[in-house]
Amino acid sequence: MSPVSDPVSGAAESFAATGPRPRVRVRRPRSEPSLIAGALAGSEADMESLFRRHWPRAYRAAFLIVHDHAAAEDIAQEAFLAAVRRLDRFDRRRRFSPWLHAIVANRAIDWARARAAMHESGQEPPESAASSDRPPGRYSEDVLAALQALSPEQRAVVVLRYVLEYTPGEIAAALELPRGTVNSRLRRGLDALETRLREVELQ
What we know:
Layout: H1 7-18, H2 32-40, H3 44-66, H4 69-85, H5 96-120, H6 141-148, H7 152-162, H8 168-175, H9 179-202
Helix pairs in contact: 2-3, 3-4, 3-5, 3-7, 4-5, 5-7, 5-8, 6-9, 7-9, 8-9
């Protein structure tokens, strides 16, 4: 006579096989104020996390202003290090990114001005090998060429407004410029871009 299985034991074995599994905790991303506090306390891990979080947009902005891959990398890295060195003066009630991008934009403008001055004095060839570099994102050759034709100041406000999506008021505060100056540079920059792109279409 075959043994009769114990229904309780059978249920227990079935539950053990198919019962609830241990919960896996999903680690939530650290908040920006927490990372900043950790960086201030000397945490290299928090500083690295802060860098990785802000690097892509900082580099993209720098590249679109200077149109040079190596220079954009240097500018983004140096701007981040400058921001970190001044973290003790940073108002943690505000966002970190506008503060960082202001440093990036100002350094990129200075670099582009110096590059233009060298070109005008004949110290640099008209075309740099870096001109073939492309930033991350979808930008046509025509748009990049039209953007490069703007002055560094116009380029910076156009990038801050339409790539990083800051308001004119935020740009004015970040670059410490009058709101009217920002609006004027935006208007002239967009007019020049439109004219240049229209000329390309007619060719």
